[in-house]
Amino acid sequence: MYSFYADFYWILNFVMNQFLVWLVAFIRRKEYTPFRWAVACAVVALISVIHKISVLEQRSVVPDGAYCVFCVLMLIGLSYKYKSNKKRSVLTEILTDMVILMFGVSITAGCILFMQEHMGDMKSADVKKAFIFNIISFAILYALFFVMRNIIKNEAEKCETIMCATLIHGSVKKNINVLYDTGNNLFSPYTNEPVNIISKETVVQMGVRDKQKPILIPYNSIGGSGLLETYRFEKLVFMDGSIMMNFLGAVSERIDKTGDVQMILNCSNKKIKRHGTTGGH
């Protein structure tokens, strides 16, 4: 009997853990690391087997609730990497992942236990119960795929507006991802030039601060108002060969949550020309 749990039960747990880890990574856009995921899922599956055998032998001293929380923490902690930032702390990230993982557990394992309990009471075919189970299964699958469909759709729309480019300033070159955003309509009040948004990390890596004095450009938005530290960049070369030259870039602490985008184009730059305008700053 114990060999069954040591083999078959471990395999089932390992596969289920892989699905749950993938589900959280898909929804939360986590980095994919197959080897790390496999190790994490294998370790947690082994812990599940040990706990199950101890329960069968009536030697378990760990409450089921504490065991469940421990397994969730182990699965999340071993599967993903966490870095603190100014917007969200590591604790917030872990708690968010835990909630999503527990939601996945309740959908999968919870439904299996629910059906197992009720199916065991059925001594003969019951069309009504079978129909209800089908409706419940359909509703759960529909909700799950609806969420995934919206996530994929949003990612696809984002990919259509993201372009790969090479930022050049002096002898420094850097490959960046550029996002065209209709919400960026910032213009310089001095020369009426469009102002793009560039991440602070990119500006530091390009060494622009060591070569130029910043231009302070005022801005007003829903989030507030103030002055943006702005610099002039020499050239931006896109993958299709189009070039934007001698343009302004305002510094932003963080452009997006994931850090995938390093620059946001001004809304007037939808059609990028070979020769950019020359400013007077």
From TrEMBL:
It comes from Butyribacter intestini. InterPro entries: SpoIIGA (IPR005081). The keyword Transmembrane helix applies. GO terms for molecular function: aspartic-type endopeptidase activity. Keywords: Membrane, Transmembrane, Transmembrane helix. The lineage of its organism: Bacteria, Bacillati, Bacillota, Clostridia, Lachnospirales. The chain crosses the membrane at residues 6-25, 37-55, 61-82, 94-115, 130-148. This is Sigma-E processing peptidase SpoIIGA. GO terms for biological process: asexual sporulation; proteolysis.
